[in-house]
């Protein structure tokens, strides 16, 4: 318990360094990963992470010849960068020179590079002095081994990622959403793409120490995918993804301090997975629960509008007093479903029913509401017939579907588009007073 | 270089494993699901660990069961996230297998207290240790051979169906063909092969054995049967050359390059992946060069008349 508070209150200098470094890495990964996700290249991060292993092991073997300590993180990071970039080049080359699909190119580079890394790792394990232990922390990730200078490196790298993404937000957005357009208007698409991939490489290298080679992709993929459930706005998504990345790193590090012996990188990834699960269910924009409510609400509104329109059309044909049986013949709906909606509308004060409940009549407010709906519907029908080249046989079905997503401003536009003659003939006059 | 009976068994086991992986790998490639192989080989880890934890032994059966379930779980859950959450296919796969892999690492660390199980061994495999066995024919060789035969039989029986599902999934679906079950079957077969292979080559190098032989054969042949045969040949070839280079030129080359003398033999599984990759890139370059050569010859033949 005492250790718990020591960790939570950041009493040790070491804890502060580790937590700060891990949190910054998580945030930077969330940020860069968002663009990777939007470019549909999430799994490139996996290939990139695995492709760093041969570089790390080779740098480790060569360290003595160049006068570096084999434990120097910056020296190993240099090797990781070179082999990671080579791996990406190999993916591009396979894509260019063969008819193999992207996924095959990714899988080939990932596994072959990792194989080379394993072969060199087996050589390192034979070296005297058990030096191979120093590499374990880069494979499984061990933020606890982070020193103050490593944390400064993470800080500088995260700062760089944040500044570049902030300055080039507009450019990266266009690159993700409409690359062809960006190219047409003469933007430097290739350099921008290379810069974005460079940021991903940087994040991957930084992440080696925190979550390790095997799981670095997780923090590039999971936080952005989770953030998409909360917003459709790119700025918000990047912020939420950074927050989720940072929080999962902090939660992972703290829980690993409390559960000694469990791999920290894996705990960080599991925290991120937990946040993903929460976002998947409860996300404000696309979460399952929210979408269920939105869809139920839409279905209810649709039903209400169908009933009002059916009553209006029946009344238009003959008597303003409409029988329930006539309404039932209008659409394939169930009797109790219709009856419950009728009583809801009666509660709203849009119509009156006779005591037996088998006849209904729209009152003043209900009539103008129904008139507005029918008007919109028929305007749309005419628009589709006269302007949108839609086959007449499809119009009714399309109108049913599209009418409900119709923007009121569009209705106004349609009115302007349509000529007066058609309006007089087919469309009831506007029940609302036009504003001067 | 000393060649012992163990070396023979390493080559035989490696070749059988690589060939067993190549068969489902070809169909994963045709379905454009190469990264599903990657995902499954990561995701079976918690299945294995739960198998260990529940049974308390390193028996094969609970491991296979856990891995098959984990493989199907990966396919089903990532499909659900993709459709229900409208997340891009690659990303939803990434979310699922990363989470499962992390869970697997933790479970293995927990299981390691009870069973003799080394996370490093599961991840990178150790062909050299796996073939050391008191029986005349090592258990691992039987297992790899068994799964190879099983995969070949399955591929032979469902050859037409697998081809149809790979080349025209919409037609397959429209004609009432149980494409979903076939996909699940392929997932399960991949997961089972992965588990058998993980003991010898490790869960990550399995991807090399799954995808690289098939991709190499695809550069050379345009018929599915040809690709299947070619992938078996590449798998066999890369296993033999891989082990040979691991015990001969690999360490010598690395010693010269890095200045560390007296390096012993390298990881055979790692070198098998490297050799498969070298074969792939060589054939890619050669295919490209011959293609260029022939197009130039054609140009030459046409131009005088023009």
Care to describe what's here?
The complex is a heterodimer of chains A (436) and B (306). With 436 residues, chain A is mainly alpha-helical. Chain A folds into 3 domains: 282 residues, ABC transporter involved in vitamin B12 uptake, BtuC (Orthogonal Bundle), CATH 1.10.3470.10; 73 residues, Arc Repressor Mutant, subunit A (Orthogonal Bundle); 60 residues, Diphtheria Toxin Repressor, domain 2 (Orthogonal Bundle), CATH 1.10.60. In chain A, 74% of the residues lie in helices and 2% in strands. Chain A has 20 helices and 3 strands. In chain A, strands 1-3-2 form a 3-stranded antiparallel β-sheet. In chain A, a hairpin with a 5-residue loop joins strand 2 and strand 3. In chain A, helix 3 packs parallel to helix 5 and helix 17 crosses helix 18. The longest helix of chain A is centred in the C-terminal third of the chain and has 30 residues. Chain A is elongated. Chain B has 306 residues and is mainly alpha-helical. Chain B has a single domain, classed as ABC transporter involved in vitamin B12 uptake, BtuC (Orthogonal Bundle), CATH 1.10.3470.10. Chain B is 81% helix and 0% strand. Chain B contains 14 helices and no strands. In chain B, helix 2 runs parallel beside helix 4. Chain B is globular and about 75 Å long. The interface between A and B is large, with 65 and 67 residues.
């Amino acid at each position: 318990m005492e250790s718990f508070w020591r960790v939570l209150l950041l009493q040790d200098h070491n804890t502060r360094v580790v937590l700060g470094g891990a949190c910054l890495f998580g945030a930077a990964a969330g940020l860069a990963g968002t663009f990777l996700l939007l470019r549909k290249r999430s799994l490139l991060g996996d290939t990139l992470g695995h492709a760093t292993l041969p570089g790390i092991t080779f740098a480790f073997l060569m360290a003595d010849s160049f006068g570096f300590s084999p434990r120097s993180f910056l020296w190993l990071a240099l090797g990781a960068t070179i082999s990671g970039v080579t791996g990406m080049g190999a993916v591009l080359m396979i894509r260019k020179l063969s008819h193999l699909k992207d996924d095959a190119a990714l899988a080939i580079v990932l596994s072959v590079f990792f194989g080379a890394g394993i072969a060199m790792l087996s050589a390192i394990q034979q070296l005297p002095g058990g030096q191979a232990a120093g590499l374990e922390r880069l494979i499984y990730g061990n933020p606890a081994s982070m020193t103050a200078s490593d944390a400064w490196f993470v800080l500088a790298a995260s700062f760089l990622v944040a500044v570049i993404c902030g300055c080039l937000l507009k450019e990266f957005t266009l690159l993700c959403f409409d690359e062809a357009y960006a190219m047409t208007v003469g933007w430097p698409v290739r350099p921008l793409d290379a810069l974005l991939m460079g940021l991903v490489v940087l994040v991957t290298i930084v992440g080696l120490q925190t979550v390790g080679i095997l799981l670095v992709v997780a923090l590039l993929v999971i936080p952005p995918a989770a953030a998409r459930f909360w917003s459709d706005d790119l700025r918000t998504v990047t912020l939420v993804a950074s927050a989720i990345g940072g929080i999962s790193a902090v939660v992972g590090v703290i829980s690993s301090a409390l559960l000694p012996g469990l791999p920290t990188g894996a705990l960080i990834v599991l925290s991120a997975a937990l946040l993903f699960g929460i976002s998947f269910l409860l996300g404000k924009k696309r979460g399952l629960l929210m979408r269920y409510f939105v869809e139920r609400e839409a279905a209810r509104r649709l039903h209400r509008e169908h009933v009002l329109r059916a009553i209006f059309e029946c009344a238009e044909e003959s008597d303003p007093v409409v029988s329930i049986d006539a309404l039932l013949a209008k659409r394939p709906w169930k009797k109790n479903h219709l009856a419950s909606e009728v009583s809801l509308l009666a509660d709203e004060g849009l119509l009156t029913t006779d005591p037996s409940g088998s006849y209904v009549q729209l009152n003043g407010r209900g009539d103008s509401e129904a008139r507005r709906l029918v008007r919109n519907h028929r305007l749309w029908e005419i628009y589709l017939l006269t302007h949108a080249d839609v086959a007449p046989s499809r119009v009714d079905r399309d109108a049913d579907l599209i009418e409900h997503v119709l923007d009121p401003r569009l209705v106004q536009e349609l009115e302007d588009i349509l000529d007066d003659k058609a309006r007089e003939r087919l469309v009831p006059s506007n029940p609302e007073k036009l504003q001067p | 270089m000393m060649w012992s009976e163990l070396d023979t068994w390493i080559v035989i086991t490696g070749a059988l494993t690589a060939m067993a992986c190549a068969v489902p790998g070809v169909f994963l490639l045709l379905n454009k699901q190469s990264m599903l192989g990657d995902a499954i080989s990561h995701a079976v880890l918690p299945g294995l660990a739960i198998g260990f934890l529940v049974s308390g032994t390193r028996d094969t059966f609970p491991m296979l069961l856990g891995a098959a379930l984990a493989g199907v779980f990966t396919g089903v859950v990532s499909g659900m996230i993709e459709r229900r959450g409208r997340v891009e296919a690659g990303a939803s796969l990434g979310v699922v297998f990363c989470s499962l892999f992390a869970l697997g690492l933790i479970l293995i660390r927990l299981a390691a207290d009870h069973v003799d199980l080394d996370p490093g061994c599961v991840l990178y495999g150790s062909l050299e240790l796996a073939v050391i066995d008191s029986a005349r024919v090592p258990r691992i060789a039987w297992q790899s051979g068994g799964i190879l035969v099983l995969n070949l039989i399955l591929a032979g029986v469902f050859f037409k169906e697998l081809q149809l599902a790979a080349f025209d999934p919409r037609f397959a679906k429209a004609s009432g063909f149980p494409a979903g079950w076939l996909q699940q079957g392929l997932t399960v077969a991949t997961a089972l092969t992965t588990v058998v292979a993980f003991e010898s080559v490790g869960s990550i190098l399995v991807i090399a054995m799954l995808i690289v032989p098939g991709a190499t054969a695809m550069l050379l042949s345009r018929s599915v049967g040809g690709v299947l045969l070619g992938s078996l040949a590449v798998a066999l070839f890369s296993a033999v050359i891989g082990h040979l280079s691991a015990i001969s030129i690999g360490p010598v080359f690395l010693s010269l390059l890095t200045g560390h003398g007296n390096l012993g033999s390298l990881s055979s599984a790692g070198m098998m992946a490297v050799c498969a990759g070298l074969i792939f890139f060589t054939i890619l370059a050669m295919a490209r060069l011959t293609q260029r050569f022939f197009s130039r010859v054609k140009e030459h033949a046409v131009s005088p008349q023009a």
